[in-house]
Design a protein that fits this description.
This protein folds into 3 domains: 159 residues, 3-Layer(aba) Sandwich (Rossmann fold); 82 residues, no CATH class; 105 residues, no CATH class. 43% of the residues lie in helices and 10% in strands. It contains 15 helices and 7 strands. The strands form 2 sheets. A 5-stranded parallel beta sheet has the order 3-2-1-4-5, sandwiched between helices. A two-stranded antiparallel sheet has the order 6-7. It starts with a strand and ends in a 15-residue tail after the last helix.
């Protein structure tokens, strides 16, 4: 039997970096291999973060690179392959060629693989899930650490009797056992959806649910059926954005520099106001999922990279629909974008009425929303 391989992709973003630190500190016995998919177009801050992580983890992070034999950077290589057609939300060839394909090649074969994903407890998304049957995704930061396919099988109406027996065997000491059994016996229906049933079980006993799922997996071909013990079964922590920044700062690895807010000046109703902008996600410096204020941030903080992004716009291909980077960089246009960003941020801040770190650092947090695979 092939040994189980544990892997974690480092994107250069805050969540995957914090997850690497978290697993190192909380579960040092897990033999996790760390990797990153290098597009050749990352910010320097990304490479600095990876170096800092390697020092903290005490091991190298494997660098995966598409088109390794090409004399060009991976992005430039595939840009030629696609005839100069820039990637977009409708044609995300960069995601597949620069992220997913190298990852799939990295874990090629039939050996069991556990992939740890840094989606936080305050996010409502699943992220990229490989369709290969030998790969299983785990989400340590969430209340529910299991992927949707596993939950669907565990809470299937056809499994009610079996799951009831597992609760009676593995959660017999729970003071909530009677109520847990009642919930298990209630079929999934329009009156009780799968998500509602899952929340009820987790709210009563996270560790108990994990023990039951782990026991269920032992009857399947999932990678976790190949291990005798899995420490995350006893995990009941739910980590949100504030926790991520705390982990990064407390470890000494630090928050990726492009998340740190920088000041900008903008005129609002004849008065000069001070706003703050930063980058909201990791990934290529010219990522087409960037907000317009992030393009302004790039122009004003990394003008050399902005100029490189401009070079790619030709023959009608632009990073954003309806506006070229040359048009966006004009002083009047940049001021308009800052004005709209400042007013929107103030509205959000007033609605939040909070002193939490999410308001101090900014309520906009789009990391991973546009590109589900950019955690790789």
């Amino acid at each position: 039997m092939a040994p189980v391989k544990h892997v974690l992709g480092i994107s250069g973003g805050k969540d995957s970096a914090a997850l690497a630190i978290y697993l190192k500190d909380k579960h040092p016995d897990l033999p996790v291999e760390y990797y990153t998919c290098d597009t050749g177009k990352e910010l320097n801050e990304t490479y600095e973060l990876i170096k800092n992580l390697e020092v903290y983890l005490g091991q190298s992070i494997v660098k995966l690179e598409a088109a390794r034999d090409s004399p060009e950077d991976p992005f430039d290589h595939f840009l030629q392959v696609y005839g100069g057609y820039l990637p977009s939300a409708m044609a995300r060839w960069c995601t597949k060629k620069l992220k997913l394909d190298p990852f799939e090649q990295y874990i090629a074969g039939d050996g069991p693989v556990i992939s740890y994903v840094g989606i936080r407890g305050d996010e409502q998304r699943e992220g990229y899930i490989s369709k290969r049957p030998n790969i299983q995704s785990i989400f340590p930061f969430r209340k529910n650490i299991w992927s949707e396919d596993v939950v669907r099988k565990v809470l299937s109406n056809g499994q009610i009797a079996f799951i009831k027996g597992l609760y009676q065997e593995y959660v017999a000491d729970s003071p909530h056992l009677e109520r847990l059994i009642e919930i298990v016996e209630e079929p999934v229906s329009p009156r009780l959806t799968q998500d509602q049933k899952l929340d009820l079980l987790l709210d009563l006993d996270i560790k108990g649910f994990n023990r039951v799922v782990f026991a269920f997996l032992k009857t399947t071909d999932y990678p976790l059926s190949k291990v005798d013990h899995f420490p995350l079964v006893d995990n009941d922590e739910v980590l949100v954005r504030d926790d991520i920044f705390r982990i990064l700062r407390d470890s000494g690895v630090g928050v990726p520099a492009y998340y740190e807010k920088r000041e900008y000046q903008v005129e609002i109703d004849g008065e000069i106001k001070t706003g703050h902008y930063s980058r909201s996600r990791s990934g290529c410096f010219f990522c087409f999922f960037q907000q317009k204020i992030e393009w302004v941030w790039l122009y004003e903080n990394h003008p050399e990279l902005y100029a490189k992004a401009q070079v790619y716009e030709k023959d009608g291909y632009t990073w954003q629909q309806g506006e070229t980077l040359d048009e966006l960089s004009q002083p009047g246009r940049r001021q308009a974008i800052k004005r709209e960003h400042y007013l929107r941020t103030e509205r959000q801040r007033n609605n939040a009425q909070s002193d939490s770190l999410i308001d101090i650092l900014g309520v906009e947090d789009a990391e991973g929303v546009g590109c589900a695979a950019c955690f790789l």
